[in-house]
Amino acid sequence: MWQWLNNEKPALSLRSKGVPLLLVTLLASGGCASTQMAENAAPEDPWEGFNRKVFAFNDVLDRYALKPVAKGYRAVTPDPVETGVGNFFSNLGEVRTALNSVLQGKPANAGLATSRFLINSTVGIGGLLDYATLMEITADEEDFGQTLAVWGWEDSRYLVLPFFGPSTLRDTTGMPANMATSPVNYVEDDAVRVSLTALNVIDIRAGLLDQEELIRGDRYRFIRDAYLQSRQFEVSDGELGDDPFASETFDFDDSDFDNSGQNDSDSGGDEVTD
Length: 274
Hints:
The protein is 54% helix and 3% strand. It has a two-stranded antiparallel ribbon with strand order 1-2. With 274 residues, it is an all-alpha fold.
C-alpha cells in the first residue's frame, strides 16, 4: 500500500496562493514602481496598480500566517500521508473535470475522469491511493474557467483576488460554478467542512514551498506571467501550434541544395599553373 502513497505528488500550479512580496518594499518604491508600470504596462494586465496592492496584501497574510503553517505541516507530516492527502483532494476534483469535459464537448476526457473517480474512490480507499494512474488512466484537468474559454472567452484580463491570488476576469467568473461542483462544500457538518477546506489550502501551500525557489526578478510579474502561460497551456490542452517541419506539405527548394556558389578551393586544392 505504501508504494502508492510514496509516489511523488505532481507539480502544483501557482494560481491558488500568493507568494511572498514585502509590503514595505512596495510602499517604499511606490514612485519608481508607478513609472515602471507606465513604461512596461502589459496589455493583459491593465489593472496592474490595483493587482499589485492586492498581491502585497495576500503576501502579508501568506508570510505571517499560511506559509509558517504550511512549513509546520510539511515538517510533521510523513511523505506518504502528505501524498495521500493530495490524492484525496485531487480525486474530488475529478467530478469538476468530468462535468466541464461534457460542457466542452470532450466525452472521452469525461469518461476518463469518471473512471478515475470511481476507481480511486473504491479500490483507492476514498481517493487516498491513486490506482487509476498506475493503470495509466489519466485525464486532463478541466474547470469552468477553461469551459468559458472554449465557449469563446479566449482572452481575459489578469486579476489578483484577495485571499485567492492570481486569476483572470474569466476564471473569476467561473469560480462560483467551481465551488458548486466541489463535494467538500456539501458536507453538512460545519466543523468537518471547514477542517477539510483548511487542510486542502495548507496542503496546496505546502506543495508550493519548493517552487518559490524558481522565482526571479520582479516576483509579481514572474507569478503573473507563469500563471497566464499555465492557463493558456491548459485551455489549449497543451497544443503549442503548428510545426512547419512536422508538416507533410513542407517542401525544400532546389536552391537549398545548390553548391554552385562554393569556391574551387573547397573541393580539394588549388590548381597548379606554369
